[in-house]
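Appendix C. Worked example: JAB1/MPN/MOV34 metalloenzyme domain-containing protein
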Amino acid sequence: MEGLRTHAMDEYPYECCGYITGTDDPETWIVRRCRNMQNELHARDPEQYPRDARTAYIFNEEDMKQLFYTDFEDPDKRVVGFYHSHPDHPAYFSEKDRMEALTDWFVPEPFYLVLSVGENSVSDMKAFVWNERKETFDE
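Step 2, the predicted output written as structure tokens:
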């Protein structure tokens, strides 16, 4: 998980984003850093993208291609989790995070990790998983 902390610190004061591939065994997990293109979109069209990368993220197109095409070539590996940071805010799963996580793209459903990052450190990290019985995400 040190790679996640480093990524969050490297991108501060902006949100970092990425995903984790592997199997159910955490020893196989590989952190895939993605480029947050929120600032570019905000600069291009602030009306459609009112938030900048300090409070939002969007994976860039190349990272999405990697995610959906290259990383699925090994049938034994899958996306086990997604992550992003909240600069200068707590590690919580926002309503926007919940809405974006509700897809049928991945089976089994990956976890969603949120890191709280400040200027000097990552102070908290929380994982959220889909609870089908309750139809919500649990910490």
